[in-house]
UniProtKB/TrEMBL annotation:
Keywords: ATP-binding, Nucleotide-binding. One of its GO terms (molecular function) is ATP hydrolysis activity. It comes from the Bacteria. This is Fe-S cluster assembly ATPase SufC. Residues 4-262 form the ABC transporter domain. Belongs to the ABC transporter superfamily. Ycf16 family. The keyword NAD does not apply. SMART domains: AAA. It comes from Ktedonosporobacter rubrisoli.
Length: 268
């Protein structure tokens, strides 16, 4: 199966070091929970893995399916079936959820042909019909059933007046449809209400299986009562300072994070 391998990753934002040597391997079929206090670099890690140009990689490597992807564009990474569920999906008035999903699927399907960097400047919004309408409808219906999403939902404008829970539902529907091999799910630090938490948990459980590896970034130990991770990692100050099984999440629930904080000397 596919593997995402992160080696000694260092990254800066605006010249400020944020990631300071991250090592992590996520394989298809595994669920990894990434936890840690606010500001420790969890979202930065997800952004760097997806190739967000705001972040500068200063050292280390990211390998996916045996290729060093550090120089690849975000679109190319997505076409390789790496997926990032965004913290704050943008609102696109006038585009229905169904149409948005079709475009997203078409963009990823371009990956079946060799597309060189810069060759397709229209990227995600390509109008090429690479997904026959009948096939799209069938696939969408299948995923909607799986995630218990009804028809009225996919006809609404994307994120237009969506609640936190509905945004999550759209995101996870997109993820189910694109069938990534490795998915990064970054939950918001705040504002994920009980409803959204439950939707995320149930949906993740519905789509996990041998073909999907997940790195689930979460502040909420509570979520791990619903989703059973194979591995739990704690990030502190730009490094993974502890890894373990799901029992580590219970330990964190009991003891918090402070006991894992590296000493100042170790930080320098
Ligand atoms: P987490 O997701 O663990 O809460 P983040 O990766 O969001 O942590 O942030 C790590 C550090 O990087 C924080 O100190 C934060 O202020 C800083 N940071 C994150 N994104 C940006 C950005 N776009 N510009 C400047 N600083 C940022
Ligand atoms: Mg944060
Ligand atoms: Mg974050």
């Amino acid at each position: 199966g596919s593997e995402l391998v992160i080696k000694n990753l260092h990254a800066n934002i605006e010249g400020k070091p944020i990631l300071r040597g991250v090592d992590l391997v996520v394989r298809q079929g595994e669920i990894h929970a990434l936890m840690g206090p606010n500001g420790s670099g969890k979202s930065t890690l997800a952004n760097v893995i997806m190739g967000n140009p705001q972040y500068e990689v200063t050292d280390g490597e990211i390998w996916f399916k045996g290729e060093n992807i550090l120089e690849y564009s975000p679109d190319r990474r997505a076409r390789m079936r790496l997926f990032l569920a965004f913290q704050y999906p943008m609102s696109i008035p006038g585009v229905s959820v169904a149409n948005f999903l079709r475009r997203a699927l078409e963009a990823v399907r371009e990956g079946n042909k060799p597309v060189e960097e810069g060759e397709n400047p229209t990227g995600r919004m390509s109008k090429r019909k690479t997904v026959p309408p009948g096939e799209f409808r069938k696939l969408l219906q299948e995923k909607m059933r799986l995630l218990k999403v009804d028809n009225s939902f996919i006809n609404r404008s994307i994120n237009d007046g969506f609640s936190g829970g509905e945004k999550k539902r759209a995101e996870i529907l997109q993820m189910a449809l694109l069938e990534p091999e490795i998915a990064l799910m970054d939950e918001t630090d705040s504002g994920l209400d009980i409803d959204a938490l439950r939707i995320v948990s149930e949906s993740v459980n519905a789509i996990t299986g041998p073909n999907l590896g997940i790195l689930l970034i979460t502040h909420y130990q509570r979520m791990l009562n619903y989703i059973k991770p194979d591995f739990v990692h704690v990030m502190f100050n730009g490094r993974i300072v502890k890894s373990g099984g799901k029992d580590l999440a219970l330990e964190l629930e009991e003891k918090g994070y402070e006991w894992l904080k590296p000493s100042d000397e170790e930080n320098e």
